[in-house]
Design a protein that fits this description.
Elements (H helix, E strand, L loop, with lengths): L15 H54 L1 E9 L2 E8 L4 E8 L2 E7 L19 E2 L7 E8 L12 E8 L3 E8 L9
Antiparallel strand pairs: 1-2, 2-3, 3-4, 4-5, 6-7, 7-8
Length: 186
């Protein structure tokens, strides 16, 4: 009698179908992981851009406040989308102007060509505005000025408030008291 070898049906290992299913499941998990990782990187990039824009806006608003603090003859104009302020910076002996227009903030300084402590909105000064922030930063803002009043019983030290909105969502504000309080404090 011949012995017939029987095939063992208890093979160990994976079948081809099981291997394909495992690779598919692993691919889906990897694709989801890569998608989440890409979204985290994009959110971090946007967050860093916003943080840099806010930091630049804060630097600009501090510079504006410093210039306004040592100034006199503040005048501001709010017309349409343009909001501007003109003043004489006593420390520098220059007329200074800031302008919010078309999503940007511009500034310039110019010699008044006349006596010191002049109204820089009315003297013949040519302003060649330059942007204070990067062109990709959208900024809007306004000025609110309370002039110094040194006559009468209710004497007031002038102050100015600068409001700035960066990229339509982040708001910065500061209020500055002016140093032109001669006649108020003797």
């Amino acid at each position: 009698m011949k012995k017939v070898k029987r095939k063992n049906k208890n093979y160990r290992g994976f079948s081809f179908v099981e291997l394909i299913v495992a690779i598919f499941i692993l691919s889906v998990i990897m694709l989801a992981s890569v998608s989440v990782f890409a979204n985290v990187i994009l959110a971090r990039k946007n967050s860093m851009k916003n943080l840099n824009n806010i930091s630049a806006g804060r630097d600009v608003i501090q510079t504006m406040a410093k210039n306004m603090r040592v100034s006199s003859q503040l005048n501001y104009v709010t017309a349409g989308n343009n909001k501007s302020i003109y003043f004489f910076n006593s420390a520098r002996g220059l007329c200074v102007s800031y302008l919010f227009s078309n999503g940007s903030l511009f500034s310039d300084t110019a010699a008044p060509g006349g006596p010191a402590n002049v109204d820089c909105s009315t003297v013949s000064v040519t302003y060649n505005y330059i942007a204070m922030l990067d062109p990709d930063v959208s900024v809007d803002g306004s000025f609110l000025i309370t002039p110094t009043n040194s006559v009468g019983p209710s004497k007031v030290i002038g102050r100015g408030t600068i409001n700035m909105v960066i990229d339509g969502k982040d708001s910065l504000q500061t209020t500055v008291s002016f140093f032109d309080y001669i006649g108020i404090i003797n």
